[in-house]
Amino acid sequence: MKNHANHPVESPNVLLVGPLEGTITDCHHFPRQIRHCRSLLDAITLSEQHRFDTIFVAMSGIDGHLDSALGALRRMCHGARIVLLAEMQQEILARQVVGMIGSPHRMADEYLICPVDTKAILECGLAHAAPHSRDATVAELTRRVQELEQLATLDDLTGLKNRRYMREFLTQILSRGGRGPWHVTLLMFDIDDFKKYNDLYGHTVGDAVLRQVAVMIQRCCRKHDIVGRIGGDEFAVIFWDLPSERERNTTKSKDATGTTRPAVERRRHPSPHPREAYFMAERFRRQLSAADLTCLGAEGKGTLTISGGLASFPEDAKTPEELIAKADQAMLEAKRSGKNRVYLVGKGQNGTT
Fold first, then answer.
1. Do 171 and 300 sit in the same domain of this protein?
2. Are residues 195 and 330 in the same domain?
3. In the predicted model, what is the mean pLDDT of the chain?
4. Helices of type H across the chain
């Protein structure tokens, strides 16, 4: 009989913290190589017993203050690489946490967008557990993973989010609408008569025009709004509220006994969300019409105009498919009415019926 006393079983070096549902694509076939616990408290307890090289933390499973929660985990798991698993609407916060490069208060090393598969988690976790002599190989693997992630989510011409990302973001953000007050407005627009630019100046110039449109629309939107190219000369913007903005649109009240009731949406005033999105879209339309098209050359002439449509959740639609269809319908109405305008679904230009 072999003596196993001198051959202890290695402790698992990859830990996943948080809910599996919505975080992992193959959560029903979770591999034994990855340890899993549902809370940060359990993770800290496990870290007292095992050494983990990489810890993946699902942001959706963190209740309370993110910085303090990650700080506690960092102190207990000194030396472990912490990777956030962020839902799409959490990407801005994840980027801020990870972006504190060089800061002694940096609480996470990188992030991935959910859902991810366990194979990617294993490869990422095992790669970071490699010896220091293989740092170059690990860095190359990380770079390649990031490049593949960009190919899956970014439009290669404009650098905006692609159709796949936009649809998945809508699915995720609308699914949170049932958890409380939540407003999402979708703008869809395309460039009027764009074909003439390709015909007159060639596709290279046409591509330059699309890139200029991409830069300008991003300048007219808030940093957290999601701007994407759907295909050809068609673009989309998802206007949504950050949690802090959502809180400003809610209020707490007390009943006759003085007991504070849960926060409810302010109902005295309709949500300004669609109107705010409309004003941003109009500002972009006006700026684009007055833009200097330097890409057309010294003798090039032209004025870019767009036709766009806006639709909002939950007022106009309840699902991503309905929201896209309603915004597309409003965009078609804008074109039929003479182009160079933005329509709110069912209300026409300027929000009038």
1. yes
2. yes
3. 78
4. 40-47, 66-76, 91-98, 118-128, 135-153, 163-175, 195-201, 203-220, 243-248, 273-289, 320-336
